[in-house]
Design a protein that fits this description.
Pfam families: Cu-oxidase, Cu-oxidase_2, Cu-oxidase_3. It contains four helices and 34 strands. With 492 residues, the protein is mainly β. The protein folds into three domains: 146 residues, Cupredoxins -  blue copper proteins (Immunoglobulin-like); 121 residues, Cupredoxins -  blue copper proteins (Immunoglobulin-like); 123 residues, Cupredoxins -  blue copper proteins (Immunoglobulin-like), CATH 2.60.40.420. The strands form seven sheets. Strands 22, 23, 25, 27, 28, 29 and 31 form a seven-stranded mixed β-sheet that branches. Strands 11-10-13-18-15-16 form a six-stranded mixed β-sheet. β22 and β23 form a beta hairpin. The radius of gyration is 23 Å and the shape is globular. 46% of the residues are buried. The structure holds copper (II) ion. The site of copper (II) ion (CU) has 6 residues, from loops. The site of copper (II) ion has 6 residues, from loops.
């Protein structure tokens, strides 16, 4: 009898634990997955409170944009030009992909494979991409990560277009103005669609090379339904290279995690970040680098006379093997690369003389169930509102919840300081800034691309849990809507 009571108590405790866990999971899914707005106009939200006073306290900024007076994002397109046209086709469809580790994965892919086809153009080309959706029911889009382009071509469901439903088509067209390493991915339900494989590499070759190398290769890191891949390979990616050859490796992080990448077998330089060249990049010898979600690092290295060079994230099991022969020695002592004092300043750089029209603050944080910006989440976060031509300073603080790689669409921003210390080396221009807990960065954005632009954490799980907001220009409207009514949920 006594034994039975004891068992009964254990059962009650177990039941209580199960109910508690169930309630927690239920609240989580309700908050994250179900509590989506019916309909929100991302161009008509209220002005950001707090931060500095806005210099242009016009009616438009206070009350949102009136549809009649405003210029529509849809009308902001790549103007007519005689730039050479490069046309590509991307078709999104469900498929099964056999991985080189023997696993077969149900994937959503562009042109039947993930990562999708590498799109490669030359600086100044007019890029035309015809997107078809074969059978992705919730619709797809293509966002051109890091590319500065006209608002209507940014590929954000519910902001710059409707998600493209099965049987439908959308044609993207823009001029690839800035050479560098970029990538593309769906921005409809991005946390699911990117994980399932709707992404690819996008390389804009320069008209004139800044750096000297014999060959180059782009290296895309992704997490496909939980499996880490390098250019689609689970076992590691091999690059052929002869002794003495100079290589440029364009490393793209298309996953949600930050990867601690080690380079063994050769010294190297980091010649570009997010596609933008660094000035006088020095030789790195025992440095790892942390590449945040969405970021790109371009490396330049020379093959040794003997043996391989190995680029790897040991934690994620990601590996790139360059060349053949003996394994490189693994350095015991390591330093993590920082751009804060790398390379050289540009003479007569005007950064200290900048006068900012606006000083805005962003605090990235989390509570039990959601990720927040300034204490709020996604469509409830008031947008930053700027006027064309303004110089905007944004102070970004990571107050908790892990790494937050902060991405701004449609612009390249310049990093001014880290934790109060101005950058000492090369100017650093990024579209995605990795912030780690406790760090504060100041960045400068030139408001020179009128539109409605998303600004979000590129850990897409964090974005789906609310860490996403808008950077809106005064006087720009959109005919599209985010919400369950339209089915446009850019960061679900
Ligand atoms: Cu985050």
């Amino acid at each position: 009898m006594r034994k039975l009571t004891w068992k009964w108590n254990i059962s009650l405790i177990l039941l209580a634990v199960v109910i508690l866990l169930g309630a927690t999971a239920g609240t989580y899914f309700w908050q994250i997955r179900l509590q989506k707005p019916l309909e929100v106009n991302m161009g008509q939200m209220h002005h950001m409170d707090g931060g500095a006073k806005h210099a242009h306290e016009g009616e438009l900024a206070k009350e949102g944009v009136s549809e009649q007076a405003a210029r529509s994002c849809k009308e902001i397109t790549a103007g007519v030009s005689d730039a050479p046209v490069q046309e590509f086709r991307l078709t999104a469809a469900q498929t099964i992909q056999e991985l080189d580790n023997g696993q077969s994965e149900k994937v959503w892919a562009f042109n039947g494979i993930t990562p999708g086809p590498e799109i490669r153009v030359t600086e100044g080309d007019r890029v035309r991409v015809v997107l078809d959706n074969q059978d992705i029911q919730e619709g797809v889009t293509v966002h051109w990560h890091g590319i500065v382009l006209p608002c209507s071509q940014d590929g954000v469901a519910g902001v710059t277009q409707d998600a493209v439903k099965p049987g439908e088509q959308f044609i993207y067209e823009f001029v690839a103005v800035s050479p560098g390493t970029y990538w593309y991915h769906s921005h409809q339900a991005s946390s699911e669609q990117v994980k399932k494989g709707l992404l690819g590499r996008f390389i804009v070759e320069p008209k004139k090379e800044t750096f000297d190398y014999d060959q180059e290769e782009s290296i895309l890191l992704q997490q496909l339904n939980g499996t880490f891949l390098v250019n689609g390979s689970a076992k590691g990616w091999s690059v052929e290279a002869a002794p003495g050859e100079k290589l440029r490796l364009r490393v793209i992080n298309a996953a949600n995690d930050t990867f601690d990448m080690s380079v063994n077998g050769a010294s190297y330089r980091i010649i570009a970040l997010d596609g933008h060249d660094l000035n006088e990049p020095g030789m790195l010898d025992h440095h790892d680098f942390n590449i945040g979600a969405g970021q790109r690092y371009d490396l330049l290295l020379q093959m040794p006379e003997q043996g391989k060079v190995i680029l790897a994230s040991e934690a994620a099991g990601l590996k790139v093997i360059v060349g053949v022969g003996s394994e490189p020695l693994t350095r015991p002592e390591r330093t993590v690369f920082t751009f804060a004092n790398y390379g050289a300043p540009v003479p007569n750089d005007s950064v200290e003389r900048f006068i900012f029209d606006q000083n805005l603050q962003i605090k990235l944080d989390q509570n039990l169930f959601i990720n927040t910006i300034n204490g709020q989440s996604f469509h409830e976060i008031p947008p930053m509102v700027v006027a064309e031509g303004e110089n905007v300073k944004i102070t970004i603080t990571n107050a908790g919840g892990g790494d937050h790689p902060f991405h701004l669409h449609g612009h390249t921003f310049r990093v001014l300081s880290r934790n109060g210390q101005p950058l000492q080396g090369s100017p650093v221009y990024l579209d995605t800034l990795l912030t780690q807990q406790g760090e504060t960065f100041e960045v400068y954005v030139k408001a020179d691309n009128p539109g409605l632009w998303m600004m979000h954490c590129h850990n897409l799980m964090h974005a789906s849990m609310g860490m996403s907001m808008m950077f809106n220009y005064e006087g720009i409207s959109t005919p599209y809507r985010v919400g369950t009514k339209s089915g446009n949920l850019p960061d679900l």
